[in-house]
Amino acid sequence: KPLSAGGGSDAIVMDDELDENVADDYENMPVHDNRPIVKKAYDALVSELGRQYNALNLKIHFMPQKDGEFHDMYGSVSQNVFNDMANNNRLYVYPTTPETFGPPGFDFSDHPLLQKSPFKTADGEPMLWNDVLRAVHDAIAHGAYGEGFGPKGEEVAFKAHAAITDDPLAIWAL
Which DSSP string do the residues of 107-126 spell out, in sequence order? Predict the structure, then answer.
């Protein structure tokens, strides 16, 4: 169900039993589903993400690396993310790496979200479609309601993101 105007976390009722069932189903899903309908869904998501990214009015940057580790510019504080977007017109996202996409030991190189997008960060770095997804999801889905990145915030963000996604197959992939 999409959120109504002014929805946010007040519109979400967490259901522990449902959450556990969804988590169990997720754990039992195929790791890399090559069915044509799945590829079609991710292709639809990529198309939606392009439209959504073009609507962002933010400078997107990758989190910087320090001593081989990514440095969280926000100190793991959601409000810092929202303040940066509101006050500086800027958003830092973690770049997609093989270690941050899917479980270890699987080759996802042909996954649609790991393909290069036509977009670049404000620093000129190429973005994969998964990077575009992170930027759109964090900026629009979390930012729209100022919801954090915990379970309730992710539920709100999914519903907010689904509400601006026209293609049902793209929502399925989301």
Answer: --TT-GGGSEEEEE-TTS-E
| Single-letter residue type at 68 | G
Using alpha carbons, list the distances in angstroms from residue 92 to 9, 44, 144, 160: 23, 25, 17, 20
Dist. CA 21–CA 167, nearest whole Å: 26
Which tens digit of pLDDT belongs to each residue from 147-169? 777 777 788 888 888 999 999 99
93 burial level (CB within 10 Å; 0-12, 13-18, 19+): buried
31-64 pLDDT, tens per residue? Answer: 667 789 999 999 999 999 999 999 998 999 999 9
Alpha-carbon gap, residue 29 to 26, rounded angstroms: 5
Model pTM? 0.83
